[in-house]
């Protein structure tokens, strides 16, 4: 395997690695040991030529007629995704969802750790949840610097989302996972990702209604 | 606009509608009023020829040089996704995450309603959360039929995920949103979707580290 330092990866390839990693993990969990670029292409909706070119950056990974070794690829991508270095996370919003995240605290992934929690509600301040004390928003800037935190998870509802995200950005955090689906403005150097449960559920129900019972549509088999 | 009954949509097109809908909503929330197939293609990573062919099934939607009207497309796809008919949902697992979902109960979407909640923990049974009473798992089959429920959300951890999903399937439910990311087995006619917060967070951190500071990689601009 080439070492990280030796690998020169185009931007577009690098952006696809989390997608590859996610689906390879799913395949592995389903017991799949190897996969051809064509099958993988159908699964993830990326052209197989793109997949082969992307994978070629990481050395000799596939063999014609055999396909790619799933666990080997996971190892390579896991190294690239740097999943073994501890990431220190701040939680903003310690309501029911925040509590659920703190209690779970990504326990199956040693490298992901929520180390601080913040809330605007005075009644929440000082509560200890799974070893983490809830602090006032005004402490965020100082604690983020002191604890070396670069990532935040916000469970604050849409109505206060922009306001809270502004405070998170002001504290120096550059990566935000936001459970309020309404889009907020962040500076260019800040990465924000949304968890939109409503859209996930709508997609699921739509797929169930139309691809199981075929009640609502006149589906043809073309395409 | 063509009515639903008149539209004949190929399977492959139908499967892309939730993706189109999701991104168009995002564009709308960001203030974008129209979009060209080429720009949309770059955003969602679907070839622009595919997008134009897909959209052509819904009548005259785009004009050369002008692009597509975002709010019109949202209206068309919203009708197709049938977002105005009430969907009755069962929640399985009334812990912190379950409580958070019940308290929110998709309030911004009138058509999505959690109408029942179930838990295996005797201490939870009988508790009322946002108007919904938590019931024992043994009541599920009967209530699902009585209440006309077709969709379930499971917040049960991975360790009991397969067991609970089996019970959900046995009750007659055909669509499951699962917050335990470990893959479980379901019959072919059952649709299951996973919310994998760990992977979402890893992707976010990876994008932040590599596309902001460019510390770890030697990115080139090729591709």
From TrEMBL, chains A, B:
Positions that bind NAD(+): 93-98
GO molecular function, one term: DNA-binding transcription factor activity
Primary location recorded for the protein, binned into one broad class: cytoplasm
Domain named CoA-binding: residues: 82-183
Secreted found in the keyword field: no
Subcellular location: Cytoplasm
Pfam family, any one: CoA_binding
Protein name as catalogued: Redox-sensing transcriptional repressor Rex
